[in-house]
Amino acid sequence: MTSTSTTSTPAADAPRVHDELELLAGLVPLAGARVIELGCGAAALARQLVQRHPDAHVTALEVDERQHAKNLAAPAAGLHFVAAGAQAIPFADAGFDLALMLKSLHHVPQPLMAQALGEVARVLRPGGHLYVSEPVYAGALNDIVRLFNDERVVRAAAQAALDAALLTGDWEPVRDLQFRTPVHFDDFETFERRMMRPTFADHHIDDARLARVRAAFMPHCGAGGADFERPMHVRLLRRRG
Which of 90, 132, 134, 222 lies in the 20 to 30 Å Cα band around 140? Predict the structure, then answer.
């Protein structure tokens, strides 16, 4: 199937995916792949990838200095961490088979999104793939998060940047799909730490905002914590030769 879409409404019949690496492996070959991840965060999927495919190699870029330091302190075979952003990738042309952007394209400064996608095209070999997985602006979890971090504009900008990239002639669309992924928080304090106070952003959390977010979160929280489903939108592009 070949299509493009900028929809922000999750499909009602979108499958539930617990393991996004399994989804990725069904779309592109990972054995022996040279992979670059842009905005890797804690690099959870990258770590899984090199464990399941020991002959693959992942170069993981991160701009957050504190997260990058944590990554360097937990090395893994086949995984190389670099402090850099997608808009200025410090590698030569055509050196990678696959590029990953996992909930990271919308974090690229909006004026630099086109430049970042141009950089990704430059470092991918002809026929290489770009896998972009972005959260959809919908759902119960999003309704809570937008109380302190409303990403409607930047998420729409990320999809628009992909649409514009397809018009440059560098890319051809391969797959466009949606899925739902489970998200669990043990309690509100866990949610606050993970979502409200990340190392890469200051959401200006004062007492009033904290109380408002807590009030929205607690109806979802039971004895076992809070469980949500986050709708996701994947677009897979191929680098033209």
Answer: 132
Q: What is the mean pLDDT of the chain?
A: 95
Report the alpha-carbon distance of residue 34 to residue 127 in Å, rounded: 13
The helix/strand count (H/E) of the chain reads as 8, 8
What pLDDT, in 10s, does the model give residues 101-143? Answer: 999 999 999 999 999 999 999 999 999 999 999 999 999 999 9
CA distance 50 to 119: 24
Contacts of 154 (CB under 8 A, 6+ apart): 106, 107, 110
8 A C-beta contact, residue 157 and residue 106: yes
Say if CB 141 and CB 221 are below 8 A apart.
no
Against a cut of 0.90, is the pTM above it? Answer: yes
Which 8-state DSSP code applies to residue 74?
S
At residue 120's C-alpha, the angle toward residues 88 and 122, to 5°, is 90
Q: What is the CATH number of domain 20-137+150-181+231-239?
A: 3.40.50.150
CA 47 to chain centre: 15
Residue 104, token pair as written in the block: 């990271």
Q: Where are the domains of the chain?
A: 20-137+150-181+231-239
